Amino acid sequence: MNQQLATDRAPDKTKALAHTIREAIAAGEYAAGEMLPSERELMEHHDLSRTTVRRAIQLLVDEGHVYRRAGSGTFVSDAPEVMGRPAVRASGTPTMSLIIPTFSNPLYAEMIDGIEREAREHGLKLMTNQSGYSLQSESDQLTELAADPHVRGVIVVPSSVEASSLGARKYMATGKPLVYMGRWPTDLPADGASADYLAAGRIAVEHLLAQGHRRIAYVEGAPNLPGFSLLDGYSQALRNAHIATHKELVRITDLASEEAGRQAIEALLAEGVEFTAVFARNDVTALGVAQALRAASIAIPKQVAVASVNDSLLARSMEPPLTSVHIYPETLGRMCFRLLHDRMTGAYDGPALHVSITPSLIARTSTTQ
């Protein structure tokens, strides 16, 4: 490939490199089945970043000009473009994938709705799977998606933030973009969008304090995510009000959300711990809290107020309706899609972006009489 890429004049370096390689294939500089130069060789020859080179190669893979062979390199397809004849493209609609922990949480349904609308508008098929809060399942799925030529990008709600999965690292090594939604591990330079959970926790507890509550329990189930727990906002609001955080009021377990809420209240009552309000990690946890309070004939909010975060359909459907901090899940889904789409199209090629949404309180009768 003798043509030197004029990167200083190219408005889109990804497309410019893809065009250069495409022309070299059409001119016969690379025969069907022949291996292209390595990523490093392309980087050095054209003075480009590894990310740009990988995206250009992925564009050619999507078009059907080339294909990757794991552990070997990138090779020219059997039917490349010759004398203006278009290459045989991979069959099927370009696809993006979404991996969420579970379909049972109504919050994710609203996130999916935002992503699906954006994907449809941009001509992409959305494939949604669940990981079951299993890091291994998430990793296995990402490994499969890395090898799927139809998959152009992935959005993941990770099961852990302590470290990225092996599959996530394999996936990103292909040059295809990955965006984390709701939370992210710190060891992988991937984009992410989330609600401001520190603000969410603080807003909820400040509301309960304004209602006159001083003994506020905090309940959280699995997964426990350092840096994305609402405990920090809970503690900050109490400190700002010069109220001590009492250890016996904080109940964090490895149980599933609804069961965590139910068992936390049962334990607090059995131990004789005094509390007049409960702040739950999410609406599903709050559902378990409400079930346990009703079973103990404790009225909400007359005897114990209950507040949460997410403001999903569940919060609006509970009896009494649940006060919950709205984190705008559909907007969050759209933000994640746009981050992904900018990476897929080469509109953005900079360092990893982490963006957050400022939440707002939706007060209902679970805290106000």
Shape verdict? elongated
* Nearest-integer average pLDDT: 89
Q: How do the strands line up in the largest sheet?
A: 4-3-5-6-7-13
Largest sheet: 6 strands, parallel
Between the first and last Cα atoms, what is the distance in angstroms?
A: 75 Å
Low-pLDDT residue intervals, each spanning 5 or more residues: 2-11, 79-91
Rounded to an integer in angstroms, the radius of gyration calculated over CA atoms is 25 Å
What is the SS-derived class? Answer: alpha/beta
Please tally the helical runs, counting DSSP H or I stretches of 4 or more residues.
12
Fraction of residues in H or I helices: 25-40%
Domain HTH gntR-type: 11-79
Organism: Paradevosia shaoguanensis
GO molecular function: DNA-binding transcription factor activity; transcription cis-regulatory region binding
Protein name: GntR family transcriptional regulator
Task: Describe the model.
With 369 residues, the protein is of the alpha/beta class. The protein has helices spanning 13-26, 39-46, 50-63, 106-121, 135-146, 166-173, 197-210, 231-240, 257-271, 283-295, 313-317, 329-345; strands spanning 66-69, 73-76, 95-100, 125-130, 151-156, 178-181, 191-195, 216-220, 250-252, 277-280, 305-310, 323-326, 354-357, 360-362. It contains twelve helices and 14 strands. A six-stranded parallel β-sheet has the order 4-3-5-6-7-13, with helices on both faces. It has a six-stranded mixed β-sheet with strand order 9-8-10-11-12-14, with helices on both faces. Strands 1-2 form a two-stranded antiparallel sheet. Strand 11, helix 11 and strand 12 form a beta-alpha-beta unit. 45% of the residues are buried. The model is unreliable at 2-11 and 79-91 (pLDDT under 50). Residues 11-79 form the HTH gntR-type domain.
